[in-house]
Structures are given as C-alpha cells and as structure tokens.
Write a structure and sequence with these properties.
This protein is mostly helical. It has a domain at 45-202. The protein has helices spanning 2-23, 48-66, 73-85, 97-106, 123-130, 135-146, 152-160, 169-179, 194-206, and strands spanning 113-114, 117-118. It has a two-stranded antiparallel ribbon with strand order 1-2. α3 runs antiparallel to α7 and α5 crosses α8 (169-179).
C-alpha cells in the first residue's frame, strides 16, 4: 500500500513538473537580420543576441519614422525620446513585422516584465544601469529605481537633456525596452497593418527624397501618426 502511494505521488510530481515547464516555455526568434552588426550589450549570454536584434530593429523603426530622409541617428533618438516623454509614441504606426516577431519572443521572458511593464528590478535592467556611460544619468536612474519611483515622467527630463543615448548601447537597450517594446503589450495586433509599415520602410530605404515624392500604398486599419510629432516649434 505504501509503495503504491509513493508511486502515485512520484507520478504526480513528474506531471506537475512537466506542466510547469510547458507553461514557462520561451519562444525563439526564427530570423536574425542583424547578426552581422556590431555587438551591443553583454549582460546575459542566453539573451544578448535577442536584445541586440531588438535594439537594431527598434533603431530602424525610429529612423524611418522620425528621419526617413537623412537617417540621422541623433535626430531620430531625440525625436523618439521627446515623444516618449510626452506619451505620444505609437508603435503601431512605425513597427515592422520583424519588430513584432522580436516582441513575441521578448514577452515570453517572464523575468523581464512585471504586469506588462519592464521589471526595473530584473537582472537585465540592473546590468543595463550598471554599464550606463553617463555617471549623472546612472545616478538618477538608480535613485529612481531604488525608491520605486522610476517612470518616464521623472526620468524623462534627465534623459532628454542627455545625448549619450547615441553611443551608449546599454542606455539604448533600456530605451528600446521601456519606451517601445513594453508599449506593445497594450496593442491589438489584429487592427495593425504591419504590411503597410514594412512597405513604408522599404520605400524609405530605396527612394531618393531629393528627386521623387514618397509614394506609399493605400493605408488600412492604421491611425494616422501626428505629422508634428517629434518636431520642435
């Protein structure tokens, strides 16, 4: 009798363990378009490659949204940060299908998120903050996190007055995760025309803006972005 009970308990725990593993399965990215690009951060060997892909895809999105002509990284980042601080970023109007695929993998990293927002106490975010180049910005960041006060309204002014995001991959990765990818948790992807966004990006990369006006396909199911977003008046 005791042996039978032990066998039953043993089988129960095997099934429970298998079930937990199934529930915690993390997705994998099918295609890495930026594998040949320079390395970005070194925080977690298991996820650094994915985070590198996430950063480069994010940068392509903001370049096509905020400076499709000049492809100026500083100008694109500055416009994005200004819009993010004002809560005017609309990922649905700028994200590519590749960015969506990356998000589908990122969202399965349970330690990275907390109720649909970036987990500031995660090992990754700690690594990002420890390696930020600008000491003043790092101090502000750590102070906000340690007091559980981190949000874009409080960190935004310090970020806006600093341009180290043009050369600091750790800060760039934080911006991409917190101000861009985390916003995708609230999106209804059934209403987003990713094909339109892809076509727009392809057109931006091929066209000569000095000779021909940009001719885009008919837009469906995507709310028009604010034409003045990201510009200083």
């Amino acid at each position: 009798m005791n042996t039978r009970i032990l066998k039953t308990v043993f089988v129960f725990f095997i099934v429970l363990n298998f079930s937990c593993k199934q529930d915690n399965t993390e997705a994998t990215l099918a295609e890495y378009k930026y594998a040949e690009k320079p390395e970005t951060i070194s925080c977690d060997p298991a996820n650094d490659k994915l985070l590198k892909e996430a950063l480069y895809s994010f940068e392509k999105d903001i370049l096509n949204q905020y400076d499709p002509n000049g492809k100026n990284k500083l100008r694109a980042y500055r416009a994005f940060v200004n819009n993010a601080i004002s809560n005017r970023v609309k990922p649905e109007n700028m994200m590519s299908s590749h960015t969506k695929a990356i998000f589908d993998v990122l969202k399965t990293k349970s330690d990275l998120w907390q109720e649909g927002a970036l987990n500031y106490n995660s090992d990754l975010v700690k690594c990002l903050s420890q390696n930020m180049q600008d000491q003043s910005l790092k101090t502000t960041f750590n102070a906000l996190v340690s007091t559980n006060s981190m949000n874009y309204k409080l960190f935004g002014p310090a970020l806006r007055s600093n341009i180290s995001y043009t050369r600091d991959a750790y800060l760039q990765t934080f911006i991409a995760l917190d101000y861009y990818y985390s916003k995708m948790f609230d999106l209804d992807f059934s209403k987003i025309n990713l094909e339109f966004n892809d076509t727009k990006q392809e057109a931006n990369n091929k066209i000569d803006f000095n000779k021909t006006p940009l001719n885009l396909p008919k837009k469906n199911n995507v709310k028009k972005a604010d034409d003045h977003a990201g510009h200083n008046h």
